[in-house]
Design a protein that fits this description.
heterotrimer, A alpha+beta, B alpha/beta, C alpha/beta, A: alpha+beta, C: alpha/beta, 4 domains
Amino acid sequence: MSETPSVLVLGGGSTGCGIARDLAMRGVDVTLVEKGNLTHGTTGRMHGLLHSGGRYAVSDQASAEECIEENRVLRRIASHCVEMTGGLFVQRPEDDDEYFEEKLQGCRECGIPAEVLSAEEAREIEPYLAEDIQRAIRVPDGAVDPFRLCVANAADAIEHGARVETHAEVTDVLVEDGEVVGVEVEHASTGGSADGLDSFVHGEPGETSELYADYVVNATGAWAGQIGEMAGVEVAVRPSKGVMTIMNVRQVDTVINRCRPKGDADIVVPHETTCILGTTDEEVEDPEDYPEEGWEVDLMIDTLSELVPMLADARTIRSFWGVRPLYEPPEVGSADPTDITRDFFLLDHDERDGLPGMASIVGGKLTTYRMMAEDIADHVCEKLGVDAECRTAEEPLPGSEDFSVLRDWMDEFGLRSPVGLRSAERLGSRVDDVLGEWDGPNPTVCECEAVTRAEINDAISQSGTELNAVRIRTRASMGNCQGAFCCHRIANELVPEYDEPTAREALDDLYQERWKGERHALWGEQLSQAMLKHHLHATTMNRDGDPAASEETVDFGAFDAGADEEHGDARAAGARTGVADGDS
Amino acid sequence: MAIREDVLVVGGGIAGATAALAAAETGAQVRLISHKKSTLRQASGLIDLLGAVVEDDPASEPSGPVADPFEAVDRLPGAHPYNVVGVEGIREGLRIFDGAVGDAYAGAHTDRNALVLTHGGTVKPTARYPESVAPGLASVEEKTLLVGFAGLTDFDATAAAAHLDATGVPFDVDGATVSFPVEFRDDALTTRLAKALDTDESNARERLAEAVDDHLDGHERVGFPAMLGDDERREVRAELEDRLGAAVFEIPTGPPSLLGLRLEDLLFDALDEAGVRIASGNPAVGYETDGGRIESVLVDRRGSEVPYSADEFVLATGGLVGKGIDSDRESVTEPIFGCHVPHPEDRYDWSYPEAFGAHAFARFGVVPDDDLRPTDASGEAEFANLRAAGGVLGGADTAREKSAAGVSLATGAYAGRRAGENATGETAVEEATR
Amino acid sequence: MSDAETPPTTEPTEPNEQQPTSKPEFEPVSVFDDGATMDLRPGADNCYKCSVCDTACPVAEVDDDFPGPKFQGPEQWRLKRKEGSEIDDSIMSCSNCMRCDDACPSSVPLSQMHNTARGEYVEEQMDKLSVEYVRNRILANYRTSAWFASKLPRLANFAMNFGPARWLMEKAMGVTSEREFPAFATQTFREWWRERGGADASRENARTARERRGEAVDAEKKVAYFHGCYSNYNTPEVAKALVRVFESFGYEIVAPEQRCSGTPMFANGMLADAERAAEVNVSSFADLVSEGYDAVASCTSCSMALRQEYPELFDIDGIEDVAENTFEALEYLRIQEDLEGAIADASVEEQAFAYHAPCHARNQGLDRQALELFRELDGVVVEDVGDSCSGISGTYGWKEEKYETSMKIGGDMFEHMHDAAGDVGMTECPTCAMQMEHGTGYEIKHPLQLLEEAIC
């Protein structure tokens, strides 16, 4: 055992990154491995709700109390990832009065500030609420950007000496003498070059490495069962899928919950420039292979337009599905996934299965990621004999230091106010470093989301050629055109630091990733948008028929070489502008 | 009835303009109505006829680039609009186009496609190209310099040059990024840059040439993204050529496309010249019919519906982008006349998981009979005097085929001529078709 | 006065009872209390970023301070928050020509977004004591100044263009001294109209014309004329032409109580002022519309305001009815009458015009009607000077800091006017006419004046 105890964290979601940060701040030597990008699993596929706890105030009060506590912590330490929109539990005429009272009572019992609003008061806050709503309860729900939150945790972990390795899939858990001693990972292509976020030497695609540590934390969420299997222990995660549909604009600026017992399609979260409609709860076998179907999208729109009627005709830009890493002790045996607690569980495999050296963390939710991380870091420290206090609840994440977004962006950085404002909302206290240090023209690269060249390049400096990693850091290509007008611009920013084939491959990956979710929104305006995208990339740029990407060579001689070529005169005046020759 | 013509064309893109010109050739009194600016301003300004053959089978890869589009027409799937008008129809469309744009476009000297540089850094096959694009053809073996502007995100000259090299072009190519010679804000529109060159603000042309000169190293031609002036574009290019001692060409861009804008101007000038009446700014929203014939198209003038009457009508309202075809979660429709638009029942079958897959939506449109009249579900013409042209016609993924402009020209010419003949009671004017 | 006995009763006396006070109220008025009607984020749903609007913007083409209609429209609306976000100040560089509306293939309510943003900017971000605000307020309320000037037109004409006074106006108020103020007529249109016998006389004239035309003497052909400020105070000959032309087609005319259409107020973000004016206009015209009148305007910006901007921006009783039944004068005759036939039989003295289509005419789809119509008129050549914007956009070109931009935008038009055969200009818009005259020295006529010459 080396002098500094070492820990391997498996999983680059909010929990894994939170654990890496916590342990690194306590002086532990941490390495985090993630099979895809950070947030690749469930973290990147959630509705962005910062729970007040109100949603669990009737059914699961323990979770509700944790939520309101962590809600307050995140507002403090992650202010640049959080927007305090406030939330409403809205009662429709057909919704039960008794439940409304229970909800109110539950909130008060859990210490969640809750205020009853009349229909008029609620509609004053949110004018697009249905005219026939009865009343509402106002709670401190908010919106959180899971990507920024996760990346900020990882960045701070690195700041404190951790290593973060993305695109490294765990292929085996190494067990020696009945104890977990490490894992084997296989490196995948990240688009041809080293991932810049980490300080870890990147393996070649297809290469495997064995990583050893004093302790291994399985924070792979819905994938925890698969890791458990590699180690020979059973972790009975019950993955449950939910659909989320993204609207083009924010029809509401407050989180709107339906005030009724558990049910599908009962929440609208104003998230960055969009609204996210959610969700469903359906158990699936495999967290990576499950059906994504149109009726689920229709259900979101049709049901939630009962609360916000204009949703019925509003434009959606994509839909995505996430898989919750639900867990309950096997003895509970809930039949319906909606009955499974949203609480989290720390499984010490030494205690539980007689396999020392590893623990798994399952269940839980993004809002309480830090608390979960603290719990498991405490556990790990105890195992490793590290005596250090958790500081993650006090120390702000990078970007969330003391900071105001209200500045004169035109004077300072030459940016239009909405562009400056959005940049600052994303970058937080890093805005001066990123925009202020930028040299040269700083045009807007992604117009939908107001992302400038400086911010794109900052993200590239963190994540290399993986443009989906650039996307989650900046929101570039996440707006209404879904990358039609900016995918190639973002790829252009890779050159000349990276070579052209790398940039082209990165472009293809990002374009395809955008298409995957946009397919779920193809009707009305978004279908027109998709057709324009198709014309721009296929007709105008000929990206689908690009000879550079084809095995076959083009016989350039078989094509028109100009009117004068026909007469064997390659440089005849006619091919050039007549006026020039007259002048000279 | 106050507003009445022989032929009414609905739509102001390539198809509508061509139809109006073709109808006017027959001697008919023609009016063209358009709601907004056409989608030409989103297109590159190139006239693609057929650059790749896309089979009906979704699994098959498109074959391309096609060198001889006329020869390749035979290999198109049966429902393709080209099969209604035939090779002669395509030539007829080109004839009208060439007449309308004059020497502003090149490519008429041959049947073969040209390979033109795209702002994405590759080449694509096209049949007609603006004269400013002509010096840049990829089959001309001249050492080439591509120039981009530092504040411009859409075109990166270094990346484009490297990409072009990877396509195997028969010449050396380099890229250079320069600052635009007049200092503008970073979000200045391309029309602003073009205007500065047009008016030679602050000696913009000379200073641009000086900036590029530093990168000239035996390059015989220099390519810029297509924003070299507007009204004075010939002079801008001529002066640059003169100062650089090299040929100067433009590389077509995506939206906002100045080449598309110029093409729109050329077509509308031709319409004026041909005496076509034009009313734009208000949408066609419906029609009046006497059984099987359309009597008038209703134009919404801010709430009041004004009938535009004619004997014959041409529907050239475009596809999904131009809003000639509309859709919701359940269905795909043609909004003015309610013509039948076939589509798979499940909207998940409208598209394909691969971004450049064989999308059904790319082929959405009305189904023409052998006289280009939109048909109903049973295959009968919806109306005796309504023909369709351009993007509103289904049956082809014109984006992947690189055939959108060609389909518009060919079907526009056919529909316009037939409408004109029927309205004037004359048959085809023989010399006009030759 | 005889008008008083005439139904419809809205035929007013000289409307000084509604006259604005000499000092516009400078306290800010909240026009954004109704969040539901002013929130245009859903309008951003229509945008698919194709940038066609940007290619149509005459301001962004010559002035990089203005980032273009797409940014100031759907992009900003999508990025903004209900609270705590500022409208980019470049909104004040938009001239409200509305060409972006006409360009957008996807019907994004661009000008509505710009108008709303401008209103919000002026109300929430602009210093109400600044010279710019006061100047804009005065320019926007042209009618107030014009009303005073009309009382002593000769003195006003002298004083307004008196050198030292203009120098002071530019230095103190930012009103460019490059331009000549328009001359005020010695007799306003309304004075003439009243003297002529008002609606009663018009009814008689219309009946005579119907008789002559072989139409039913009692035919329901009646229009309510929105003359606007300019043809009342400055160019009554245009208003008179309209009256004579319409009467000759058998239409009886009323000229109801009216205030400024609001166009200059929209362009300056003075939405509260515009709404007050709109309330008067809508209430006055709504009554007439319900009695079977159609509203006609000779100024294309006025017809634009009544048919598009009012219903987009305000919630006033009867506003939709008025919008649906408002027409530009020539447009109305083309729809209702065989104008072409009437023209084909007529002829005028040989003359040539350089015609400019105002942006607001373009927006209503009227940019080619004068050309098409007069093509059929013997003796006349009307040449289109191209589709560029004149650059003045109402009050825009009067601002000292916008003068140069305004003249740059107009550059193409001036050049084409010089190239055209005629040395008389023609346009429907009074401020375009001002710019045309300023840039070329040409006399400028309204199409109705030529039509009057042809058929009356």
